[in-house]
């Protein structure tokens, strides 16, 4: 007689799935909230960068560079459009300098020439930069550890230089040509004979303020706009 095969059937025991879900719920809420706020932060960062780029390239060709850094020269008021335009810095000038110096200033030991070179290079319009900031809010104290401020910077090394951006006569008269400048200024600015006034005005306009170059530049800009 063949043995009988019997199967033992066990009753299912109550599971712990609900308890495990309740225990992990705080972690899920925290990670979900963190993901949301990180997404908001990345979106704010992107918006900040777009704003910096927009303001930088919108200002290209407009506004003025910061006044030149010249000893004994009072800088004139300039229009500030909110963008930073430092002089003498930037990747473009850093790449240019090794190509230029060996063929120019390194071949002379004249102190006045070296001084003039340093003054020019330190005042070259260079890297045009724009910085923008934005903030976003977090709800509750659970995410207070998140930095709620974003910062973006955009740089532009190329610039259409105009005469007004780098007035070499101002650079020269603050350094090697200062003696000549002072001699003309001290003797021409006071009242002179009536028949000499047109000559004085022409010298001051052309030599001291480069009026002829500035007038030609403005005329070219007007023709380009037309």
Describe the structure.
The protein has 226 residues and is mainly alpha-helical. The protein has seven helices and two strands, in the order H-H-H-E-E-H-H-H-H. The termini are far apart. The mean pLDDT is 77.
Quick structural summary:
With 226 residues, the chain is mostly helical. Helices cover 48% and strands 7% of the residues.
Which terms would index this structure?
single chain; 226 residues; mainly alpha; 2 domains; two-stranded antiparallel ribbon; 7 helices; 2 strands; 7% strand
Number of helices: 7
- Ranges where pLDDT stays below 50 over 5 or more residues in a row are none
Return the structural class: mainly alpha
First CA to last CA: what distance? 115 Å
How do the strands line up in the largest sheet? 1-2
Sheet-strand content, in percent, reads 5-15%
Number of strands: 2
Topology (SSEs and partners):
Blueprint: H1 17-58, H2 91-100, H3 111-122, E1 128-135, E2 149-156, H4 168-173, H5 178-188, H6 197-208, H7 211-225
Antiparallel strand pairs: 1-2
